[in-house]
Amino acid sequence: MAATHDLKEPTTLGAVDTTVYTYVASVQELEKDGQLTRWVNDHDILLYIWNDEIKAISNICRHFGGPVGYRKHKDGKFTCLWHNWQFSCDDGGCETNPGTPLRQYTDLKLQNGLIYINLLA
Amino acid sequence: MKNVTLTLKYVREMDCPKDVVIWNYYDHEHLVGTHYKYYREARILAEKDSWALLYRKMKMPLLPICNSTLACQWMEDNVMHVVHRDLMGFLLEMEVHFEDLPNDRSLITVIYNIQVHPFLKLFEKYFQLVFERWYEGTWEEDAPMRMRRWRVHKLGFKDFIGLDYVNKKLPAPAEFPEREYVFKPPVAAFSPIKTTGIGRPSISDIELGYNE
Q1: Which pLDDT value is given to residue B111?
Q2: What is the mean pLDDT of chain B?
Q3: A86, A105, B65, B194: which is deepest, by most CB within 10 A?
Q4: Residue A96 CB: number of other CB atoms within 10 A?
Q5: Which of A43, A63, A72 sits opposite B208 (nearest CB)?
Q6: Which of A48, A60, A64, A120 to mutate to test the interface with B (most CBs of B within 10 A)?
Q7: Helix (H, G, I), strand (E, B), or coil: what is residue B190?
Q8: Pairing of strands B39-48, A114-117
């Protein structure tokens, strides 16, 4: 597991505009298992560390709504608990049914060890 | 000598409407997903409307070997019937009664009738323990699945599509219109459960759990 200071920062450090960004979790919480899930404003976010980078995708499987991040990712894939649909850690692409990728949240901010997310990007 | 019937009954409430629970009972693909610790294989041999003929291989608590069953499942009004015949020759008749309660809750009554040789009446306590653990274990795994299914339904989830506002990068609506959960079997299957059947994935995965 990469130490906090080794993580590639999702965006430049700076004051977080809380009208755009919403707090998700601390880096310390994320580093515990290397991934975590959290409901934020009716978005279920799967936050994880992949190739020393903090990434975020939707935790809601587009099949029947199952929890994609229930299990720790393995061999570069998340496997949804309910029906074993698999998704790539690289970009949330669905390997079981390629037409149904998970939405990626690409605009994250890291400040003072806290991770913020822009739910609209 | 005539068989005797051992009867077990369990009653529980769920914080979701009964149709979500019925969906869960008809979602045969989840057996080797959600219940991967118990189920090894599942296959739908035939299915029409609420009728399904199923093959399932599972490991029940306290039994040293895997068992397999052929099961016929159907609905009559608000009661689901399942008749199982297992590898050892036991006949199990199961009834699940579904009742909606106020405030989107439901009452679920599960009745197991196991027909056994009179000699096995001596082991009634053992059967009771096996089924109690089976019922408790699978219920504990199904309950969060039903609650989550109900939660995403209320947010506007559509099967094989997801949530529109998430996919389209829009803000979540300030208010979600009420949508009744209406389920009519069968569940649309994506896997080969209707042809070759499906097995469980590797069980060495680390579970981090739900966040509800």
Answers
A1: 98
A2: 95
A3: A105
A4: 17
A5: A72
A6: A64
A7: coil
A8: unpaired
Beta-ladder partners of B195: none
In chain A, where the domains are located: 22-117
Taking 50 as the pLDDT cut, the residues of chain B under it are none
CA gap A64, A82 in Å, rounded: 8
Contact A70 B210 (CB under 8 A): yes
Buried b (16+ CB within 10 A) or exposed e, B100-138: eeeebebebebebebebeeebeeeeeebeebbeebbeeb
Q: Looking at domain A22-117, what is its CATH homologous superfamily?
A: Rieske [2Fe-2S] iron-sulphur domain (2.102.10.10)
Contact pairs from chain A to chain B, CB under 8 Å: 100
Q: Between the CA of residue A75 and those of A97, B2, B37, B69, what are the distances in Å?
A: 18, 55, 21, 34
Per the CB < 8 A criterion, the answer to whether B98 and B26 are in contact is: no
DSSP, collapsed to helix, strand or coil, labels residue B12 as: strand
pLDDT of residue B117: 87
- pLDDT tens-digit series, residues B36-86: 999 999 999 999 999 999 999 999 999 888 999 999 999 999 999 999 999
Instruction: Please list the ranges in chain A whose pLDDT falls under 50.
Output: 1-5
Q: Which pLDDT score is estimated for A7?
A: 61
Contact indicator for B83, B93 with CB cutoff of 8 Å: yes
Tokens at residue A6, please? 């080794």
- The label of the residue with tokens 């609905």 reads B75
Name residues whose C-beta falls within 8 Å of residue A5's C-beta, 6 or more positions apart in sequence. none
Examine residue B186 and say whether the peptide bond preceding it is cis (omega within 30 degrees of 0): yes
The dihedral sign for the CA sequence A17, A53, B148, A101: positive
